[in-house]
Amino acid sequence: MANRLKDYFPLIRERKEVLEESDASVGLRTIFYSWEQEQREEFLDFCTGVKGVKILYDSFFKEIMNPEYAPGRLNQFLSLLIGEKVTIKQVIPNDSTRIAAEGSLLITDIVVEFEDGALADIEIQKIGYAFPGERSACYSADLLLRQYKRVREKQRGQKVKFSYKNIKNVYTIVIFEKSPMEIRMLENRYIHKSFWGFDTGLKMNLLQNFIFIALDIFRKNMENKTVENELDAWLMFFASEEPERIIELIESYPGFREIYRDIYEICLNMEKVMGMYSKELQELDRNTVQYMIDEMQETIDAQKQALNEQSETIKSQAQIISEQKRQYEELLRRVEKLEEK
Predict the structure, then answer these.
(1) Which UniProt keywords apply (predicted)?
(2) Does 306 fall in a domain?
């Protein structure tokens, strides 16, 4: 089968070239053959254009979408997603007040500040079960607290009286590769935006905003359909590795051609791309183990609850039997008294 992506990106190399370069270096050859056969094939496929790169791999996402190197890309995506033009001022370290989420199956996490002072946390989750609504609320609260501290410290340095009016919006944006059950129940909707409201119609800005994107549902909804708007084009960019979809994107939305060119230029640096891919495999292994642990814990908890319920049932039945036995003995005594008469 002809490699159609190579027609658009002549810098894409042949399988033979990639193998020859990896075999020429002891270090690269050691890394390459440390992978499973399926992993080696995946690596060769995206390096040679047989398939696209998994854009949501942390290393690739941050390399391609890094606001410090290519600010227009994330600006455009977030503007389309939020529904108003936003401009990223800077990327903020996410290891200060961030609530640690051990084993959350997190792929990527980027916190950015917009020009107006608003903050956004962009999360990419491999498996949605590890990111329930309760955890989203905690992350958002953590982000809002960071916003509060930043504003307070800034105004203190300027010797200006603190005002809550200077605290801006915070956005928790979660992209799910595999969405949780709650989202999968809405099988025709793949973007979910929160809104705050009161039963009286009261209008008040509560600052915290949530946007959930279900890429698995998006893929299903886009089967045998063409991309018809820019936001869906971005989601297709994140969701699909199919050459046909990639070609559709770069022909209908030429801005993606530059992004894919950057991806295939990365693939020319064998040492770098193998290092990036190895890092992703290690993270996926860790996440898989953690997911299995989480699943086992859920099973254990469910079994424990079932045993507790059975124990309560047994206690209840024992009380019933005891009461029936008491009533039976009472009846026997009454019969004995009647016979004595």
Answers:
(1) Coiled coil
(2) no
Question: How many residues are present in the chain?
Answer: 341
Where the chain has pLDDT below 50, the residues are 1, 96-105, 289
Q: What's at 18, amino acid-wise?
A: V
Rg (CA), the chain: 29
* Residue 97 per-residue DSSP state: S
103 and 147 Cβ atoms separated by less than 8 Å: no
Find out whether 193 and 211 touch, Cβ atoms under 8 Å. Answer: yes
DSSP state of 95: S
The DSSP code sequence of 192-231 is EE-----TT-------EEEEEEEHHHHHHHTTT----SHH
Angle at 145 between CA 144 and CA 148, to 5 degrees: 90
- Cα–Cα distance measured from residue 77 to residue 56, given in angstroms and rounded to the nearest whole number: 14
- Number of domains into which the chain is organized: 1
Closest by Cα among 211, 213, 66, 215 to 140: 211
In a domain, 259, yes or no: no
Residue 4 bridge partners (DSSP): none
Q: And the tokens for 113?
A: 């500040």
Determine the residue type at 163: S
- Encode pLDDT of 56-114 as tens digits: 888 888 889 988 888 899 999 999 999 999 999 988 876 544 444 444 445 567 889 99
Q: Is residue 81 part of a domain?
A: yes
Give me the residues paired with residue 172 across strands.
121, 210
CB 176 within 8 A of CB 128: yes
Six token digits for residue 217: 């549902």
**Global pTM?**
0.78
Question: Does 36 map to a domain?
Answer: no
